[in-house]
Design brief:
Serine protease, eight-stranded antiparallel β-sheet, Peptidase_S1_PA_chymotrypsin, Peptidase_S1_PA, single chain, mainly beta, Thrombin, subunit H, 2 domains, Jelly Rolls, 4 helices
C-alpha cells in the first residue's frame, strides 16, 4: 500500500470460467456485509457481438464490457453482491458447440470492508519530514459530520462538498479527490497516485453521500474511471488528472483554488471521505468545536513555507481533500498530513503551478 492511502478492502483469488461450453453463462459473487464487490477479468475470449455485464442483483447498477476488457478490472458494484453474465449474440449456424475454447475468466475479486471491519483498520502513516509512525489526525473529539446534515444549516458547505470524489485505487485503497475548475480536471495527492497507468485503474465516485443525517443508506454514486495524469509533483504533493466520462460528473460542480495565502485564524471547512466513509464535513457551521481554522499559514510540509496548518478533523482516506476558506469558499490548501496540527499544501502555490492547465 502506498503511504497515505487508506485500505478499504481485500483481494480474493477466485477461478471462475463463464460462457459457452466452459461453464455457466452467469456467476454470482456474494460477500455478506461487503461495501462493494469488484471483479477482475483474466481473459475475455468472445465472438463479435458477445458481451459481459457486471451488475447488482436488481440491475439498478450495471456495466457492460466486451473482449477488449480482458486483463482489466471491472467497475465496482456497490453492495455485497455482483452478478457477472455473458450475453451471446444469435448463432443461426449452430457453430458454437465447437467453440469450447471461448469463455470469460474471473481470477480476482476485491471485496470492500464493512463499516465494522473498516473501524479495525489502522490509519496509514503520512511521511511528514522529521516524524515517523502512525499519525493521529482527529484533534480531540471528532466533530466532523455527514455532509447531508448541513444541507439546510450550512448550504454553501453542502453544495461545495458535491465536488469531491471518493477515489478507489487498485481495488482496495482509498484517497479523496475533487474537481478543480470548469474543465476536466481532478486534484489529489501525489502520494495517492502518480501515473496515468494508476489513474486508469482508479474509480472516481461522485455523490457518495449519506441520504439521511446519521443514517446508513447512501445515494447511488456516479462512478467514472480516472484517465490521464496531466501534472504531478512530490514536493507539493499533488497530482492533476482527468476522468473518462466527464460529461457524467459536470453536474456536481467544481471548486476553485484561492490565489492568496490565508491569514492566521481564517475559518475553514473540509469536505472529505475519511476512512472510506460517505462525505463528511469538518468545520461546518454549528459544530461545537471551533478548532477548524488556520493555525499557521507558513508551515513546513515537504519543503519550508509549503503548507498551511490547522486542527480540522481528518482521518485515513482524507488525503487529497480540499481545505476551503469560509470567507472566500475557495480552496486554500490540499490536505496531505496528519499529526495535530494537520496540514495541506498551500492553494496559492498550486494555483500558480497549475495555471496553464486550469
Amino acid at each position: 500500500m502506498a503511504g497515505g492511502r487508506q485500505r478499504v478492502g481485500e483481494l480474493l483469488t477466485v477461478g471462475k470460467l463463464l460462457g459457452y461450453l466452459a461453464g455457466p453463462s452467469a456467476q454470482t459473487f456474494r460477500y455478506p456485509g461487503a461495501s462493494y464487490v469488484k471483479v477482475h477479468f483474466a481473459r475475455m475470449a468472445m465472438l463479435p457481438g458477445d458481451y459481459v455485464t457486471v451488475a447488482n442483483p436488481d440491475a439498478t447498477e450495471s456495466y457492460r464490457y466486451d473482449a477488449k476488457n480482458g486483463g482489466k478490472w471491472a467497475m465496482s458494484i456497490t453492495g455485497d453482491t455482483a452478478v457477472v453474465e455473458v450475453h451471446r449474440a444469435i448463432d443461426p449456424l449452430g457453430v458454437r458447440s465447437a467453440l469450447d475454447g471461448l469463455g470469460v475468466r474471473v481470477d480476482r475479486v476485491a471485496r470492500g470492508f464493512s463499516r465494522t471491519e473498516q473501524a479495525r483498520i489502522p490509519a496509514p502513516a503520512t511521511a511528514r519530514p522529521g516524524r515517523s509512525g502512525r499519525e493521529e489526525s482527529v484533534c480531540g473529539a471528532d466533530t466532523s459530520t455527514d455532509a447531508i446534515c448541513y444541507q439546510s444549516a450550512d448550504p454553501v458547505a453542502y453544495v461545495k462538498s458535491k465536488a469531491i470524489a471518493r477515489l478507489l485505487i487498485n481495488g482496495t485503497e482509498l484517497c479523496t479527490g475533487w474537481r478543480v475548475g470548469p474543465k476536466n480536471r481532478m486534484l489529489t495527492n501525489n502520494h495517492c497516485l502518480t501515473t496515468s497507468e494508476e489513474a486508469y485503474d482508479t474509480e472516481v465516485w461522485f455523490n457518495y453521500q449519506c441520504a439521511k443525517c446519521g443514517g446508513y443508506d447512501v445515494f447511488k454514486p456516479t462512478k467514472v474511471w480516472g484517465d490521464q495524469v496531466l501534472s504531478t509533483d512530490h514536493v507539493l504533493d499533488y497530482t492533476l488528472f482527468s476522468v473518462d466520462g466527464f460529461e457524467d460528473v459536470t453536474k456536481f460542480g467544481y471548486l476553485t483554488l484561492d490565489t492568496a495565502r490565508p491569514a492566521k485564524g481564517t475559518e475553514l471547512y473540509v469536505p472529505q471521505h475519511p476512512a472510506g466513509e460517505p462525505t463528511r464535513i469538518a468545520g461546518a457551521k454549528g459544530e461545537k468545536a471551533g478548532n477548524c481554522s488556520v493555525e499557521n499559514p507558513d508551515y513546513t510540509g515537504y519543503a519550508a513555507h509549503s503548507d498551511v496548518s490547522y486542527l480540522c478533523d481528518t482521518a485515513g482516506g482524507s488525503s487529497g481533500s480540499p481545505v476551503l476558506s469560509r470567507k472566500t469558499n475557495r480552496v486554500v490548501a490540499l490536505h496531505h498530513f496528519g499529526g495535530c496540527p494537520n496540514s495541506g499544501v498551500r492553494g496559492d502555490l498550486l494555483a500558480a503551478k497549475l495555471r496553464a492547465y486550469l
